[in-house]
Amino acid sequence: MNILVLNCGSSSIKYQLFNMDDNSHHVLGKGAVEKIGLKGSFLKHEKENGEKVLLEGEILDHQTGIDYILGLLSSEKHGCIKNLEEIDAVGHRVVHGGETFNSSVFITNEVVDKMNECIDLAPLHNPPNLSGISAIEHLLPSVPQVGVFDTAFHQTMPKHAYMYAIPYSLYQKYGIRRYGFHGTSHKYVSARACEILGIDYAKAKVISCHLGNGASISAVKNGESVDTSMGFTPIEGLMMGTRAGDLDIGAATYIMDKEMIGTRSASVLFNKQSGLMGVTGISSDMREIRAAAAKGDKMAILGMDMYAYRVKKYVGAYAAAMGGVDVILFTGGIGENATYLRQEICSELEYMGVEMDDKVNETVLGEEAVVSKDSSKVKIMVVPTDEELVIAKDTRQIVEELANR
């Protein structure tokens, strides 16, 4: 089965075309459309053999972008399929499913209506996700579509974990609660870690640290998310590239009063100008901050210390919430490659049974590996995430179930 996975952002579309069978999968082609609706739009594509293609042109909207993608995938010169009829299904990443969607779903008109109801919860993300669905409906009307939600994995959280201590009527009226994000990533890496270790996922306690420009931690107990650091929006929780993470509400309103800014400007301040960028004044990229810290830049050192400390604090909190931990895993661009941060986060956790093998850890970059000592009670792992594969697997499962009814 050939499955096209689409991840539509506000001005971009990432895609992968998977060939899936019972026991294996491989990527026929992948790439991205960038700067949709802006000057200098382009499509970059990578073939199965690693050869890369760059196409430039005016791409005004998501439908045009997807049309470009389909044309390239089926082209005689650069394509990997003979015609579009070889695409059996399309899986979409959808950021917010609210309380409506606790699993991936076959997309119908009714599902689209319910997804539209979730736009208020993710006004920047859900509209382009829906644009992608609409484009496929227009361009490939007979191909089944599946929606895979970032928030779905976290719908197993108990009520005492996802509720905020605000008037209950606000939850009832507006659905204000912790939803969590990166669910597709946390689901994949936590299950994969247990598979690598040969332990029962349904009986394991895993702390999954997804550390990238956006960052979150999830406590996964017996195969289910029981808590996660991102909340009603992706701003809550860890310090991130440009997001503030946990912040006293009083400090936020105080800043708004002193700077005489409204909610829109405050949102930009805490989402786009804070985090590592705001503290260091250097960059939101951990590699650049690491380089500056190595030269003695005090703000870079402070930013790294704050970042590691907050991750460590959540690790301790989630170990307490689950009554222990069997596996601590790192994923995402920073989690998979920043060896020094993994070491710092796990240092002084020996009382929990955490023993990092520093020599092994220093050699692991972006690959599956156990980086704890053999004597460590808690296994420390690096597990590269593969959200697109999860979307492809869920899409295949749902489409096959429908076909067998």
UniProtKB/TrEMBL annotation:
GO cellular component assignments: cytoplasm
Pfam families (alphabetical): Acetate_kinase (PF00871)
Positions that bind ATP: K14, H210, L211, G212, N213, G214, D285, M286, R287, G333, I334, G335, E336, N337
Cofactors: Mg(2+); Mn(2+)
Binding site for Mg(2+): N7, E387
Keywords in alphabetical order: ATP-binding, Cytoplasm, Kinase, Magnesium, Metal-binding, Nucleotide-binding, Transferase
Source taxon at top rank: Bacteria
Subunit structure: Homodimer.
The name this protein goes by in its record: Acetate kinase
